């Protein structure tokens, strides 16, 4: 558990800068201003912050979708260079916020995941690909018949399940989930959170979970780093940070977190009660 | 129409009274069925529901802003004594902005990007009152101050793109208030905003309802947002209202299986993943739900009779539920003896 899988040191990402077509200097914007993170193997690590905090930029650097301006990221003891190292690329997979945008609308689910499996040499032959796809879909709670359908045919929650199946297809070591439930309806969110927690427990996945919502983070994660304005303002175990936030920003964020009066009914009357019709 | 020069309220109690509202889309779909709602002065009523629940269409119907091809097919909407369905376009125009102010989800699309915010607010001030340009501008600056802008005189010269999301939403609220409305309709006013900004905007809305003694309808998908500011809640699902009551009571002791399930599915900072219960299935698409209770396919307590029709049951103490199986709820005995 304590073995570290990912280490981020003094990560900086700067956008803009350079000169425009009239050779005027362009303003630059530093989205990430020196971030240090350590993610241990098997843990679920949250990066929390509001829009503009730089949390998604950090996530993009980890999966290799963004080249850092400076700083070091090491993965399993080796420097992270996903552009060159295809094993690393396979080992780190991402689940996106908008599941529809991350699925090819013209491919059936079966062919999309099947292609991924074959290209990455996970299986040989179409039959094996189908079998593995069915297995993956079952793992995320979808029937095997889902294979023959295109993303359009699914609801938001089901699409996110497909997005998760796709990310898990090539047995990643690290799953980076960027706001995986924020685009979903309230009544659907819980089922995806429960699914992610189950997968975490069953597969021993290491997960980096990006979110703006401390309440969601509390359900899923062991440790959390709170980001604001490109830096980590506070980090620690989720329990400690939520119970006793040290930083003023974390406190503000916590105060703004969903709080409901406690529900006083834990279950509804027995279903087996008299099914007789009430008059009128 | 005879009421052209002044709006005289017919009802003393409710600013807004919606009775058995039904909204129909050309082609026969019914995305809103039998929704009733009443809002008084100083009251903040939350309409909560998921996407497709009909909450936004209900609000648009109230403002007379239904998109083309979508019509009110049954029921009554009265705003300050004016029947919205029968109102002339002239009356509607005065209603919008004058009696009813609206705040939408996306502040950037509600604002004119090429116009300084002071002018935008002043413009809506002069639409609703006969004032000089100077007076309108003074009112605009005053409104900006009320919205929490620190230096309203200088802020009035800013363009929308120079403001943060929260500040833009404050400008939209200022515009909505420019005509001194007595009813403020807010459609997901904080959904596009960050959590900490959300709280500030909600506090602002709450303060306005108290200080100006106006009625507020807040449509939201977020129970946390609604619970923070609303006195009363109307929970919608599949185009119908499933439950209504004082906010705190609805959240603590729901009287509909949907509200019950939803409350057990929402992660909060006090809940743990092992207590969360997911709701199987998906919400019906707008207009897809039939004559019966729209929650039937996802409800573990559904009986055959539930598919026959829905009746709103008055439970007393301002509470209404659309679930016929009230015997499921522990409050049942208590409520029937009232």
Any overview of this molecule?
The complex is a heterodimer of chains A (280) and B (338). By secondary structure, chain A is α/β, with parallel strands linked by helices. In chain A, 33% of the residues lie in helices and 24% in strands. Chain A has a six-stranded mixed β-sheet with strand order 6-7-8-3-9-10, with helices on both faces. In chain A, strands 2-1-4-5 form a four-stranded antiparallel β-sheet, with helices on one face. In chain A, helix 4 packs across helix 5 (156-168). Chain A starts with a strand and ends in a 25-residue tail after the last helix. Chain B has an eight-stranded mixed β-sheet, sandwiched between helices. In chain B, strand 9 (232-237) and strand 10 (240-246) form a beta hairpin. Chain B is globular, with a radius of gyration of 21 Å. In chain B, helix 4 (117-128) packs across helix 5 (133-146), helix 4 runs parallel beside helix 7 and helix 7 packs parallel to helix 8. Chain B has helices at residues 55-63, 89-99, 107-110, 117-128, 133-146, 152-155, 165-177, 195-211, 223-229, 247-252, 257-265, 332-336, and strands at 14-25, 32-40, 44-48, 70-79, 82-83, 100-103, 183-187, 215-220, 232-237, 240-246, 313-316, 319-321. Residues 1-12 of chain B have low confidence and may be disordered. Chain B contains twelve helices and twelve strands. With 338 residues, chain B is of the alpha/beta class. The chains are: A alpha/beta (280), B alpha/beta (338). Chains A and B meet through helix 6, helix 7 and helix 9 of A and helix 8, helix 9, helix 10 and helix 11 of B.
